[in-house]
Amino acid sequence: MSVLEVDLSFLFVVAVILIWFMIGYQFILTVYGYFNYMKSLKEKKEVDSKEYDLPSCSILIPAHNEDKVIGHTIEAMLRLNYPKDKLEIIVINDGSKDRTKEIIEHYASLDSRVVLYDVPKGEGGKGKSRALNLGIKQAKSEIIAIYDADNTPDENALKYLVIQLTTHKELGAVLGKFRTVNKNTNLLTKFINIETLSFQSMLQAGRWQMHRIATLPGTNFVMWSSLIKKLGGWDEEALTEDSELSIRIYQEGYKIKFIPYAITYEQEPQEWKVWIRQRMRWVRGNNYVIAKFFKHIPKFKNKRLAFDLLYNLSLYYVFFAAILISDVLFIISAMNLVSIALPGPYTFVWIMAFFLFILEITLAISFDEEESFKNVFLIILSYFSYCQLWIYIVLKAIYSEYIKKEKRTWDKTVRFEVKPSQLPHQAEVLSKELTDERQNK
Q1: Residue 204 DSSP code
Q2: What are the tens digits of pLDDT across the range 213-227?
Q3: Overall pTM surpassing 0.85 (yes/no)
Q4: CB 90 within 8 A of CB 139
């Protein structure tokens, strides 16, 4: 055996072990996610059987050129099952150049709960964190809720989130689940639907059940107003402001809970170029978060949080490095450019890891009754296509961040017109109802 064969064999063994470890750990999280799913069914039933005195809540909705979706979003907020006298909906017009402001003004004229906050001229379009930091100064409630401008939450979603936050004093924030409203549009949205459901079942439900750790998403979550103000608001340098804020909430001694029965529906990218830009922002945002907190890990009082941050580092770099090595070795050995002589059953172990990947994703999406032969086929297909594209995204993010040293800028996800069939709610358009009600008064 040549030196090259020995080196390549060693690399292959390391890659297989790392892939197996990461997929194996994610399978454990999936199992814990199932326990969380069963527990949440009982929790929801108990919550539905009681009456609660809900506190005041301010919903913040950052909106930058959102005229295609903002009307549907405001209508969904007005349908929320929450005391009218305790709810304000602050829509932050963040330098929009389309009809966003006009639409917000229309709904504000129909319902006093809707409040337009117009970001001062010259201050708009500087990112979601900046818009939220300006908007929160307008909020007067005990609790802050965050929703993206394309969201249509279930009518009980906000109530469920607030109940958990106020019932368990150790919580600083509570997040719900998001579903893909356009999941059946094309192959990409079908892949994203599977990805987002499995991510939430593993890395939200599973981590909460196993470690009492969850990470804030960009939408569908609530927190104490006093806490976010104490923390100084959102980090305006962070492209993934939600994950950065999550760590600071834990450092403050609070926990963040995930409840899968508080559901919102949101748009996902329908074009590959839009998806790549969005994922690039995520990777670069996580690079920033890891760099910001990495040196503080040994000082974390919450050791599970320290482990979780290291796990995220492994997920974005170690795991993808192992996948890249495995792919390269597979290709060059298939082309007979090199031969890899292995004494152990490493090929069998690799194949078993692949089947474990399929099994855990299928189990994860079954919590939302999405398991089917069609989706199993999509899971297999995604492993050889969608998942492999993450390698390109991670490498491109590293190149942009550390070689080109490009400035971090907020890249808003492109919206599209919402079809009536895509809306999760079948209620009539509220603008006409509210107009009629106002005229009758």
Answers
A1: I
A2: 999 998 999 999 999
A3: yes
A4: yes
